[in-house]
Amino acid sequence: MFVVIRFRVPEAEQAEFALRVEAAVEVLSRQKGFVTARTGRNVDDPELLALNLEFLNIGSYRRALSPYEVKLTAVPLLSQAIDEPTAYEELSEFLTGH
Question: pTM to 2 decimals?
Answer without folding.
Answer: 0.88
